[in-house]
Each structure stands twice: as C-alpha cells, then as structure tokens.
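Section handout, structural biology tutorial.
Before the tutorial, make sure you can parse a SMILES string by hand: atoms, branches in parentheses, ring closures as digits. In the record below the ligand is adenosine-5'-triphosphate, and the chain has 315 residues. In the tutorial you will relate the predicted structure tokens back to the input. Do not try to memorize them.
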Amino acid sequence: MDSIISIQALSKVYDNGFAALNHIDLDIKRGEILALLGPNGAGKTTLISTIAGIVSPSNGRILVDGHDNVRSYRAARQQIGLVPQELTLGAFETVFNTVSFTRGLFGLKPDPAHIDQILKDLSLYDKRHNQLRMLSGGMKRRVLIAKALSHAPKILFLDEPTAGVDVELRKDMWRIVNRLRESGVTIILTTHYIEEAEEIADRVAVIRRGEILLIEEKDQLMQKLGKKQLIVEFKQPLAEIPNTLDGYDISLSENREVLTYTFDATADATGITKLLLRLNEAGMSLKDVRTTQSSLEDIFVDLVHNESPPPEEVA
Ligand SMILES: Nc1ncnc2c1ncn2[C@@H]1O[C@H](COP(=O)(O)OP(=O)(O)OP(=O)(O)O)[C@@H](O)[C@H]1O
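Predicted structure of the complex:
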C-alpha cells in the first residue's frame, strides 16, 4: 500500500492523565478519502491534531509523506491542511487577505493567482474583498477550507465539516471534497454522521475510546457486515419451526406470528426460495413478506454500543 500517512503505536495521554489515544496503528492511503467515524469523545480530533503536530504524542511515531512529524515537524506540517471544527476567524480581515496570510505562515511566497483559484473553486471569489464578519456561517466554513488549502497541501483534514451546515452547503462540501480528491489530495474527515461516511468515504475507520475498532473499504464493510433480513408474517401462529429449516438463521416472535430470517445479501444463494417453499410445505399461509437492509448506520450503532462480541470478531 502506498501510504501517505503511517502511524505506529500512537498513544496520547493528556496532562490530566486521560488516555485519549491507545496504541493506534493506522496507514492512510495516498489519494483516498478516509472517514474517521466515532461517537463524541472517541478521540477523532485528538488523532488528527496529533497527526497535524498540534498535539504532541505521548508514544509512537507518525510519518507524513515520509517525514517524521516530530523530528521533521515543518516538512510534515507543510503537507497538511487542517480545517478545524470551530469557526475560528478574525472579524475585520478580508477573505482574500486572510487566506493569503495563512499561505505566508507556511513560509511560501504570495501567489494571488493560486488564492484566486481556491476562492473560485469554493464559490468565494465574489466575496474576496468582504470582511469576514459580513459572511454567513456557511461562507465562513468555506473560508476555513480555503485557508487550509492556501499552501497546496497533499493532505486535507476536515474535522466534522458539516456540523451545523444546511443541506445545500453539505452537498457543495462533498462536491469540493470530490474535486480535491480528483486532483490527488488525500482527505481525512471526522464525523459522527454515518451517512457522511457512507456517502463520501473510500474507507471507514471506526474509532472508540481512543482505539481503532476497524478499518475497512466502505464497500467491503457493507458486504461483510451488511446483512439483510427477510420478515415473514403468518396468518396464524406457527406451532414450531419446521425441522426442514434446521440450519437457517431464524428467530420467531413471541406470538409466533412473525419469523425473521437473517441472510447474507451478497451470497449467490440466499436461501429465500427454499425457506418459502418449506413454509408452504408446512401449510403456513403468509400475510406479509418483506426484507430490511441493515445499513452502515446499524453496523456503527452495533459497534459503538454493543460491548459484546468484541469488534475484532465482528470485522
Ligand atoms: N486537552 C485535553 N485535556 C484532557 N482531556 C482532553 C483534552 N482534549 C480532549 N480531551 C479528552 O479526550 C477525549 C477525546 O477527545 P476528542 O476531542 O479527541 O474526541 P472526538 O472524537 O473528536 O469527539 P467529538 O466528536 O465530540 O469532537 C475526550 O474525552 C476529551 O474530553
């Protein structure tokens, strides 16, 4: 794997003794969109802040495009653009100047044409001479992205990019992210919105209590864990599950009127036809038959709230 970020045995214990990251090993592929998915306080911001060199690691090592982010801090930081969660912007500066100034912080020469291009890409160009205080929240968020891109980084971190933004802006955000990816930028975003990971990511890493529970190609994750259920309602209660259905992953409701069959939706043979045939042979009249697809959201809820079985086994 061509990793642009390589993290080995990373731990972070804050000064108050709180262990926010526990022995994290993680490789981020060049050019991918990786979603770091986890509940509040899982350690997402700590992880990206540590990679970006804002928080110092207690243990472990991080290579950013080959640069050790502690020993070669500047070279590592140069590769990274970071869009923070909070709207931290001055009030009176203009859009153009604030983005251009950020570029200067990286020791780069002014490049008005580059800044103009970023502002155009982010639909901020006609606001370039506006003071920041005159912008809406959504526009301010775009300015944060523009700042993060001012030094043309290879890697962009977006910390909960769509928290509190409206649907239109969210769609715009994803267009921007996709365009950046097409231009070769690696993107890591944190989120607790599962739909976001489902919509945009190539890979999903689930983080909980400072540990990576799993990291998987989104599609494979869906295939691996995406189970489907066939729900069959009977006109009369079923006396017992016919023994011709031994081996099927079946459960029966308490009133014996609803049977749930869990199957792998990606398998060649789902077993549905046989199951319905066997029920017919057993003389059961059906009232209703439907299927439900478990989404990545269900998977996530399972992983985060279900302490047992251990996540490694689930993955
Ligand atoms: N400077 C600090 N000192 C002590 N504890 C901290 C510090 N910063 C963060 N923490 C704790 O570390 C844990 C992880 O926080 P972090 O902000 O990384 O989580 P997160 O996954 O980004 O959460 P959220 O989704 O709410 O932003 C939390 O329990 C938080 O309270």
